[in-house]
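Hi R.,

Quick one: here's the AarF/ABC1/UbiB kinase family protein sequence you asked about.
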Amino acid sequence: MTDSRNAEDREAAIPRNGAARTAKLASIPLGIAGRAVGGWGRRLTGQSAEEVNATLSAKAAEQLFEVLGTLKGGAMKFGQALSVFEAAVPDEMAKPYREALTKLQAAAPPMPARQTHRVLAEQLGRTWQQRFAAFDDEPAASASIGQVHRANWHDGREVAVKVQYPGADDALRSDLRQLQRFSRLFQAFVPGTEVKPLLAELAERMNEELDYQAEAQNQRAFVKAFEGVPGFLIPRVVASAPKVVVTEWATGTPLSKIIAGGDKETRDRAGRLLTEFHYSSPERARLLHSDPHPGNFMLTADGRLCVIDFGGVSRLPEGIPQHLGEMTRLALDGESAKLMQLLRESGFIRGDADLRADDVLAYLAPFTEPLAGDTFHFTRRWMQRQAGRVGDTRGRDFRIGRSLNLPPEYLMIHRVTAGSTGILCQLDAEIPARAIVERWQPGFAA
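And here's the predicted structure, written out as tokens:
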């Protein structure tokens, strides 16, 4: 029995040995520290700081991808969440991180066909093969807790079959516990972004991510909400089980490829549609797609935005809170006293915080720049400025940011908006952001 279990572990898509996973994750910060010491030594031998730093950044990125990608589970989920903030990384470090983190959006070692068949039999029944006219054992894509196979349903429809990795639940729990221990060390990967709350949020969403039947229900809700809406495609759900979900197949160009080499018209279109999807979903579906990374979005041949992977969804039965739109408008208009009052009333400022209204406005106003004119050009440089501004521990904005509070009901909205903004900056998209926000954000219109 032990030998068969060990053999199964060796062929598993997600390595199950808890001690081994912990050691792998611990190697990331230890490796970074060791390379830093080695870099100091190379500087003493005459290499320039710029050359040494570039080498250290490349090696750190290579290790980050190797560890998070091969472990999958919560480790890879964390890497995917980091990837949308790549635009905030300073230019001298950006290239190796960009390449490594982008790989995490779509690449990971597959599980063997025998194991895939075993999961399908457990979830769809021993006669699962009769439900398909054809099934490709070679996965078309892989992700943090599952992989996708291309197949034909029994009625001839082309479908995508997402199969969850055995042991994904244990791996997710183990990884997130371990990553939370190292959260301060990982902070260097994403300046201006809080890693600890991000990991806490991933842990809270864990059970929903693992339940493919819940994901199927989420996807059905989005299909209904966006049916007939020009510019969007949400694949229909064909069948589902707790660890398998079957949807109609969709073909398109992933946003990661558009980011890497798309022309201006394509990048601008992708950015506009992504922004409309983000801001309109709470009103159309009373839901917010909460996993914004380029691997979950494609542009179809006819120019529609195709959205996939609905495992992470935030429920907003009342839509986006109106106060959020009102605060954005007040910051844009420079109404510091009214903004301060509304922030206090809404719980964004702690009762004992000693803050000046003008300082709070100075902290928040730059975030509203995309809404100041008819269009805004989202760039990496703009996001780097924002990240540098709020992440500089010596600056006023860092102190102001630490004195503000983010109420729990706004946490997911804030994180998804920041992630979507990161993608817009990666796309280098110029879009009519103000018109979209005026149309869909309650409380913003003047």
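The longest helix spans residues 18-44.

Cheers,
M.
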